[in-house]
From TrEMBL:
GO CC annotation terms, alphabetical: cytoplasm; nucleus; plasma membrane
PH domain residues: 7-112, 187-285
Transmembrane segments: none
InterPro entries per record: PH-like_dom_sf (IPR011993), PH_domain (IPR001849), PI-Interact_SigTrans_Reg (IPR051707)
Pfam family, one: PH
Species, as recorded: Poecilia reticulata
SMART domains: PH (SM00233)
Chief location: membrane
Protein's UniProt keywords contain GTP-binding: no
Listed CDD domains: PH2_TAPP1_2
Entry GO MF terms: lipid binding
Lineage: Eukaryota, Metazoa, Chordata, Craniata, Vertebrata
Topology with respect to the bilayer: Peripheral membrane protein
Record-given protein name: Pleckstrin homology domain containing A1
């Protein structure tokens, strides 16, 4: 879902058909900057790209005449909408129906300018992002004049998309949310891409996470079969929204505390962040049984041992966690 970032811009992931009429959609991170009057798209969230990495395409909001649903025009492209800019039409795919409706709404609102009546302020009014939402590579560029409208896009590599050998590149660029786009294994509770902080270098890398009834695993991409790490649910003490998100300057950040370390993970949207927190918390509850949190289990063990002093767990000041009733089921794309 589109969300407002710390710079008051509307952001989110979409798939875009960068080469007109190619039928090939690539995953991109979009930023709708109403103050600068631009719609920009990047290979990934700029926070996760090398410093100074430029956008791979942008469009002036003044060039956009209309944004509308295009599911009937492109029946094979699910949740598709179109941006009309002069003689060029940009086709994009949202993640679901709600995402489609919200992006169409915010884009149309961003391009709508209300002309003031006589006697009023002469400055045009444009809705703020909150109002609109209802509160590594170096590439070359080309500029095309289409119907009198300058369109700036990144040129595609010649080898990309010409044969089946680019499957890995394509999947990595598309950054799919669900495993069903990249693999056939459906035995999981939740799966999708997030960005995690490394333990040693403290750098941020995009990883593909899979949550099942026993563990949370992450992979280099959705095409890999061997996990980089498997975190058993029994080792996870709590999952919650990160208190240090302001310090780290990261949106949609949550933390997962285990016996050995604390994992800092960034989701692509606030909804995705809360979904991960609820999914992992629910899986933990389902594994341990209702009402048996990590503190409760430790307390039972201590009270059941005669040689250990009685222990009362510290309850005040604990951070809130999200718990949902266990209902593990595969996600659908």
């Amino acid at each position: 879902m589109p969300y407002v970032d710390r710079q008051n811009r509307i952001c989110g992931f979409l798939d875009i058909e960068e080469i007109e009429n190619s039928g090939r959609f690539l995953r991109r991170y979009f930023i709708l900057d109403t103050e600068q009057g631009n719609l920009l798209w990047y290979m990934d969230n700029p926070q996760n790209l090398p410093k100074g990495a430029d956008n791979v395409g942008f469009l002036k909001l003044t060039y956009i005449s209309k944004v509308s649903d295009a599911t009937k025009l492109r029946p094979k492209a699910e949740f598709c909408f179109v941006i009309n800019a002069g003689m060029r039409k940009f086709y994009l795919q949202a993640n679901d129906q709600q995402d489609l409706v919200e992006w169409i709404s915010v884009l149309n609102n961003a391009t709508k300018i209300t002309v003031p009546k006589s006697g009023e302020s002469q400055s045009a009014y444009v809705e703020t992002p909150q109002e609109a939402l209802g509160a590594m590579k170096q590439v070359s560029y080309k500029t095309e004049i289409i119907g009198g409208v300058p369109i700036i896009t990144a040129t595609q590599e010649q080898s990309e998309g010409q044969n089946g050998s680019d499957r890995g590149k394509r999947a990595q660029n598309q950054l799919p949310y669900f495993l069903s786009r990249g693999a056939q294994d459906q035995s999981f509770i939740k799966a999708g891409y997030c960005v995690k902080q490394g333990a040693v270098m403290r750098n941020w890398k995009r990883r593909y996470f899979i949550l099942d009834e026993n563990a949370l695993s992450y992979y280099k991409s959705d095409l890999d079969r061997e996990a980089l790490r498997v975190i058993p649910l029994k080792e996870i003490q709590k999952v919650q929204e990160c208190k240090q998100s302001e310090l780290m300057m990261r949106d949609n950040l949550f933390e997962m505390v285990t016996n050995s370390r604390t994992f800092f993970i960034q989701a692509d949207s606030p909804e995705d962040m809360h979904s991960w927190i609820k999914a992992v918390s629910g899986a933990i509850v389902a594994q341990r049984g209702p009402g048996r949190s990590a503190n409760t289990i430790r307390q039972v063990r201590r009270l059941s041992s005669p040689c250990i002093e009685r222990y009362t767990p510290f309850c005040s000041g604990e951070s809130r966690t999200y718990v949902s009733p266990p209902n593990p089921r595969p996600l659908t794309s």
